[in-house]
Recover the amino acids of this structure.
């Protein structure tokens, strides 16, 4: 079945443009060519070029590989900058960046604060039946917290796996390949909080 043509969305288009510029800025700051970044990330040079020019809609897996190669995080690359104001930001649902899984059945809304991105990353997670979100390892010692609000999931970390349903929370090591799969017949809604290695070392 052919994929439907994406309808224009000002918020999404603005985010994609900012993302492309950020990746290009970080790449050039590290004095990396497109080829260098391609080798480091495993993402095709042509794809990186298209992302930088806002000509492609990268998957979450692609963004994850690029962010690791650039020494940052996906959330840090797409979060809005701060103007130094004391006002706490109020963001509408249309202003919240959305990342999609490789199969296009899962989405992550970035609802965490850019000020804490190096320690804590906070997401609203949704998955259609059969959807699977695969993630690369986070920094060593990182812990992921997944609270299921509705539906049922299976979390796989390396060779181990666990299931959880509405009202339950799983906390697991995220410094190795891991995935979240909707194993039910209804959509999954969950809250995901990643506590990165820096914070884990601080409180341990």
């Amino acid at each position: 079945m052919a994929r439907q043509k994406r309808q224009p969305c000002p918020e999404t288009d603005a985010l994609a443009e900012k993302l492309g510029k950020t990746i290009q800025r970080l790449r050039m700051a590290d004095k990396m060519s497109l080829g260098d970044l391609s080798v480091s990330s495993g993402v095709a040079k042509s794809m990186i070029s298209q992302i930088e020019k806002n000509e492609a809609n990268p998957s979450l897996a692609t963004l994850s590989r690029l962010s690791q190669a650039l020494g940052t995080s996906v959330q840090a690359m797409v979060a809005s900058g701060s103007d130094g104001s004391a006002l706490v930001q109020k963001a509408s649902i249309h202003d919240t960046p959305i990342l999609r899984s490789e199969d296009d059945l899962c989405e992550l809304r970035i609802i965490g604060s850019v000020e804490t991105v190096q320690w804590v990353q906070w997401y609203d997670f949704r998955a259609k039946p059969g959807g699977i979100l695969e993630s690369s390892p986070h920094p060593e010692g990182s812990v992921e917290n997944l609270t299921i609000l509705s539906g049922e999931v299976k979390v796989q970390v390396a060779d181990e796996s666990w299931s959880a349903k509405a009202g339950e929370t799983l906390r697991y090591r995220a410094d190795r390949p891991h995935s979240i799969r909707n194993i039910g017949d209804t959509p999954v809604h969950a809250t995901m909080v990643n506590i990165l290695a820096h914070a884990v070392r601080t409180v341990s």
Summary: The domain at 96-203 is CATH 2.60.120.10 (Jelly Rolls).
